[in-house]
Write a structure and sequence with these properties.
The structure holds 2 protein chains of 2 kinds. By secondary structure, chain A is of the alpha/beta class. Chain A has 12 helices and 13 strands. The two termini of chain A are 19 Å apart. Chain B folds into 3 domains: 156 residues, Glycogen Phosphorylase B (Rossmann fold); 179 residues, Rossmann fold, CATH 3.40.50; 134 residues, no CATH class. By secondary structure, chain B is an alpha/beta fold. In chain B, the strands form 3 sheets. A 7-stranded mixed beta sheet of chain B has the order 17-18-16-15-14-13-19, with helices on both faces. Chain B has a 6-stranded parallel beta sheet with strand order 2-1-3-4-5-6, sandwiched between helices. A 6-stranded parallel beta sheet of chain B has the order 9-8-7-10-11-12. Classes of the chains: A alpha/beta, B alpha/beta. The interface between A and B is small, with 11 and 12 residues.
Chain lengths: 381, 510
């Protein structure tokens, strides 16, 4: 009998960061045959080739086989020759943007278990903001057999009743990432220490900043004023574009001279080295909180933007709030960290990396054993 | 005779239609002193063959070629092997039905691949001779077939694995056919999966057919299967190793007129044919299984319908419906007869003389083919723009709505004016240039046939209005052309996907 395979499907640029730790787990820790299907749409989106290089590196380090998939038919024809196992995707649902992954899942051989991962705290079909509801409705479904949620069922308020039976709470794969101590390409030595610098993340492409109003303009204006204020104190700040959206770069937005752009994959960024973090509602806020830095969620002045799922975090609106928060965060970080611990507890999210690891490993191992019940456990030789 | 098959494109030359239907009879035709050439319509330049056969070219260009060939005294026919015409209540095919009606006014004969298709055509076009040209096999070698059957039976009994093949086009833009047939009839395969036997189905089909919804259906097939992309080499390889070809046929109009070619190919490669559903292959009846039970009996006994002792009989059946030499012979006999009929029908008992001037004009419609226009220009055929023609070009004649939408104005180029009767030409007033052509104008006051009652809705410019006014607009153009150039026959080039009609429908009131 042929060995089982764990097949990862990468379609959106941000899928790489979500799936990466599981590729390492499947290939290195569990010793399973591991493949990565990269959709043609991913290749097209990755104009800078950054993510292609990341995938190449992951493949080199794990021995996973990379292959380009044009359409669901090609995936079908490749999967039919495999014994079975698990198919994993970080963005799969019945929404148009996820179509190819959804179709691969719909048509997969029965010998494979299809697994969809929640790819952010707010994620269609799992936990949605009001903007998600407006854009996509509240009946998002998955072709997956199993959906891996970050939170327990009662907290995933957008999980359709028909999908609840598929839920396995695993927690976020972010907890399995080991950030580098040094960011690649940093040339900031001799300047102000990174421990004193804050990080601001933009997700200006998001429907959240465009559906209920033109909040992007508001965000950019506030950010620019904040940068001016920092500059007058001789301070600088790191700006991180969303990995998929890349708004600032795609639109050639002019940024102040005291802004350092950080566009490395999140798993290569050591967030804990920053003094504080500010972002519009986005999963990167959870990354910041998990990294243990003072974190603030930006909310525009009108209050129309829905940030309810981040209730419990410090909120900032105009540049005065930003400056006050930055100063306070540097002086008394513990005040924020304590508040953020409550936020995390309220989420009901698994937080222990060992626990999260075991949950995912069990899932992959069960899928492998379903194909080959006699497969030897890792560590038994 | 020099026969020219006009095909839609270069790409078509490699498709099954051209490969199976024409290329296989070409050697036999050559052996009897005839030639057969496949010519993409875009490459057509002049009439230099004796017979022209239009194949899958459903537009004005094909009608132009037909008109030109007839002008030069050549035989013209159309080859119809897919039924896009009998679904009379399906508006998607309205354009094709109109094209077929128009083409039958220009042709001497029609070919088709089955008696069922002939019957369908005869019901509508009683006066046109129709010949059934069967799709012939590529090669039929009894000795090789005998060896292959022996090998396959030995493999079957030793492996007890039944290799089943399904191959061919998996979809159609208009009909649920191909993979849906396979999925619909796949339950019949379950009966082959008996204790002690394994069934292995291989599906070979085109990539376009492998869409998600269809792949989901494939997953319901009750036997293990492998899906592969079709190629001729893959098909050859598959049939070489398969014991059974599974060829289910559904009973929709489109499917029941299909040729025998898939079953013929399967039998030539030594596979048994299992064809549940509509009895398309009745002419090969002695070699077809429509149910699983007798096939299972044959698997147990080795007494298959296609076996060593029945090869001779198969050869006899093929001679009647799949032999390339016989098909070539019958085609030539039919064409010779048509040619004799034409000569006999001409006034002096000789082949008709070529006409010095083109006797036709091309009316370009709302969605017209620029290459049709260019072909007409190149060959001296008059080009006519209808009111909906979007193309800007130097048309010889233009029809336009008048300001009150009560009739059409007729713009005639100076060159064409010279061909008109003095009485009409005298009324035409100069009206300036459009692009490089100088026109004269006639209105419905000059030419009463330009009146267009019922065209009032045209002012809106909407598609609905265009559909409503199409018949009256078209009838007006025809009537005006008949009045100003009575000897010129009008040909239409209309590829508009909306269900337009040339014929005005009479409202039915209770």
């Amino acid at each position: 009998m042929n060995p089982p395979s764990i097949v990862f499907i990468v379609n959106l640029l941000q899928d790489v960061a979500v799936l990466r730790p599981l590729v390492f787990m499947a290939a290195r820790d569990l010793g399973l045959d591991t493949k990565i299907f990269v959709t043609a749409a991913f290749d097209k989106r990755d104009r800078s080739n950054v993510w292609h290089n990341e995938l190449q590196q992951i493949a080199r380090e794990t021995g996973a086989a990379l292959s380009l998939i044009e359409d669901e038919a090609q995936a079908f024809m490749q999967l039919q020759y495999l014994a079975g196992g698990a198919l994993l995707a970080a963005s799969e649902s019945n929404l148009a943007g996820h179509r190819i992954v959804h179709d691969i899942f719909r048509t997969k051989p029965d010998s494979f278990v299809a697994i969809t991962l929640q790819h952010g705290l707010e994620c269609v079909g799992f936990l949605q903001s009001r903007d998600h509801d407006r854009a996509h409705g509240r009946a998002v479904t998955f072709a997956a057999d199993i959906v891996c949620g970050w939170l327990e069922a009662e907290k995933l308020t957008a999980l359709a009743p028909s999908q609840r039976g598929k839920l396995v709470t695993t927690g976020p794969t972010t907890l399995l990432q080991q950030a580098s101590r040094e960011e690649p390409g940093r040339k900031e030595s001799g300047q102000r220490g990174q421990g004193q610098r804050g990080i601001v993340c933009e997700n200006l492409h998001s429907i959240r900043l465009n559906l209920a109003g033109d909040f992007g303009t508001d965000f950019v204006a506030t950010f620019n004023k904040f940068c001016s204020a920092l500059a007058s104190q001789g301070d600088d700040v790191t700006l991180r574009p969303h990995p998929g959206g890349q708004y600032v770069l795609k639109h050639n937005t002019t940024v102040a001279s005291n802004v350092v752009i950080n566009n490395h994959p999140i798993y290569k960024v050591n967030l804990s080295r920053y003094a504080y973090g500010i972002s519009a509602p986005s999963s990167v806020l959870v990354d910041m909180v998990l990294a243990g830095i003072p974190t603030a969620v930006w909310r525009e002045g009108t209050g129309r933007m829905d940030a309810d799922n981040y209730t419990g975090l410090t909120q900032v609106t105009d540049e005065h709030d930003w400056i006050a928060f930055a100063e306070e965060a540097r002086s008394h970080p513990e005040r924020y960290v304590e508040k953020q611990t409550d936020f995390l507890q309220h989420l009901c999210m698994p937080l222990d990396p060992g626990d999260v690891y075991r949950r995912y490993a069990e899932l992959l191992w069960c899928a492998a054993r379903r194909t080959l019940p006699t497969i030897a456990s890792p560590g038994r030789g | 005779m020099k026969i020219c098959i006009i095909v839609p494109s270069e790409d078509y030359l490699t498709r099954a239609g051209a490969r199976i239907r024409y290329s296989r009879i070409a050697p036999a035709l050559r052996a009897s002193g005839h030639t057969l050439t496949l010519l993409p319509i875009a490459d057509f330049s002049d009439i230099d063959h004796d017979v022209y056969i239009l194949s899958k070219c459903f537009d004005g260009r094909a009608l132009l070629v037909a008109g030109m060939a007839r002008d030069k005294g050549k035989l013209v026919g159309v080859d119809l092997f897919d039924d896009y015409f009998s679904h009379r209540d399906d508006s998607r095919f309205q354009r094709l039905r109109l094209w077929l009606d128009e083409s039958f006014a220009h042709i001497d004969f029609a070919l088709c691949a089955t008696s069922a298709m002939r019957h369908m055509l005869e019901c509508r076009y009683q006066s046109t001779p129709i010949h059934v040209m069967n799709d012939p096999h590529e090669t039929f070698e009894p000795e090789k077939l005998r060896d292959r059957l022996t090998e396959k039976y030995a493999d079957l009994t030793s492996s007890r694995a039944l290799h089943v093949a399904w191959y061919g086009m998996g979809d159609n833009p208009y009909f649920s056919v191909g993979l849906p047939d396979l999925c619909g009839f796949a339950g019949h395969l379950e009966a082959l999966q008996r204790p002690g036997w394994t069934v292995k189905l291989t599906i070979l089909t085109n990539r376009r057919a492998m869409v998600a919804d269809q792949l989901v259906e494939l997953r319901k097939i009750p036997v293990p299967f492998e899906l592969k992309e079709w190629s001729l080499a893959e098909e050859e390889e598959l049939l070489k190793k398969s014991h059974i070809s599974f060829l289910p046929v559904c009973a929709q109009n489109f499917s029941v007129v299909k040729s025998l070619n898939r079953a013929v190919t399967a039998l030539c490669h030594g596979t048994q044919v299992f064809s549940p559903g509509f009895d398309l292959y009745d002419r090969l009846d002695d070699f077809i299984y429509q149910r699983a039970a007798p096939l299972n009996d044959a698997i147990d006994s080795g007494q298959f319908r296609l076996r060593d002792e029945t090869i001779l009989k198969l050869e006899e059946v093929f001679a009647d419906c799949a032999d390339p030499a016989a098909e070539a012979r019958r085609l030539m006999a039919f064409l010779q007869e048509r040619e004799e009929h034409r000569i006999a029908a001409s006034p002096i008992g000789l082949a008709p003389e070529a006409s010095p001037d083109p006797s036709c004009a091309l009316i370009c419609g709302r969605d017209t083919n620029a290459t049709a226009y260019r072909l007409a220009k190149r060959t001296g055929i008059l080009t006519i723009a209808s009111p909906g023609t979007p193309v800007t070009a130097n048309f010889d004649i233009r029809f336009e709505w008048n300001d009150t939408f009560t009739g059409l104005n007729l713009l005639i180029s100076e060159a064409v004016c010279a061909r008109l009767a003095d009485e009409i030409a005298g009324k035409a007033r100069p009206c300036g240039r459009i692009i490089e052509t100088t026109y004269r104008k006639l209105s419905m006051l000059d030419l009463p046939s330009l009146a267009c009652p019922g065209g009032g809705a045209a002012w809106t410019g909407s598609r609905a209005a265009a559909l409503a006014t199409y018949p009256v607009e078209y009838a007006t153009m025809r009537a005006a052309m008949a009045e100003i150039l009575p000897k010129v026959e009008c040909i239409s080039d209309e590829n508009w996907r909306w269900p337009f009609s040339y014929v005005r429908q009479t409202a039915r009131l209770n």
